[in-house]
Model the fold of this input.
Amino acid sequence: MSATVQVRPSLDDLRTLVDRDLDYLLPASNVYPESIHRAMRHSIFAGGKRLRPILCIESGGLLGAPIGLLARVGAALEMIHTYSLIHDDLPALDNDDLRRGKPTCHVVFGEAIAILAGDALLTLAFRVLSELQGAPPERLVQIIRELASAIGTPEGMIAGQVADLEPRRQPVTPHVLEFIHRAKTGGLLRASVRSGALAANPNGEDLSRLTTYGEKVGLAFQIADDLLDVLGTSAQLGKTAGKDKRQSKATYPSLYGIEESRRIARQLVDEACAALDPFAARGDPLREIARLLIERTA
Done:
């Protein structure tokens, strides 16, 4: 009898899986009060790469966690990420009217509903995590703690957002720039990798390897994003291009130049892939994602 060949799900398959869970978990748009639920769904289903859920699924799958559990954690990650985008686009922060090629939440629904939609997504994410099936309670607590740390302060997304706001129109040191990128964007990407791994109850060495991968990929992703803001168009990006420079934001191209920023991003991806060497071919999906991050045009 021939061995059964397992077909690896494509990235599109994984996006579909996560979107199915998101559609199930979010209140329907006709549930009272309709405005908040329409706003939540507007931003969740406006598009997006679903990168954070995919990193979670691939890292957990590498260590043998069930895909259903990982997809549910991934859905919570996408809620957290979308909450951050809704709030980031508000007039008090980046003041953007375009996200994923569509009008931002506050443009469509007003600032008050947009703020509450972000709050509701964040709250729902932690409810979803608390109700996960297929993992012991102590592992769920580890995942919840991991994500709470990644999006809070003193070293998470909110801390990075504050550090990004404060130095505008002032010189930024390399140390501050790296902190902003690692905290504001890199932290949730690293936590996506680690939460998938934690769902599999990893040994210390495997978790350390995947943590290194997540840290390197998280910073490389934001450097690539900085470069796209300079080199891309609004049509390509699905958001307003060139805003970083107009707002005097701290970016790698503004501090290091375009070519050096590219070199740093490539080096980070090489280091991320090297951290996966002990996994041999099983690490190929994560290596592929890492390389796609610096080759993307949107």
Remarks:
- Strands lie at 98-99, 102-103.
- The chain has 15 helices and two strands.
- Residues 204-231 form the longest helix (28 residues).
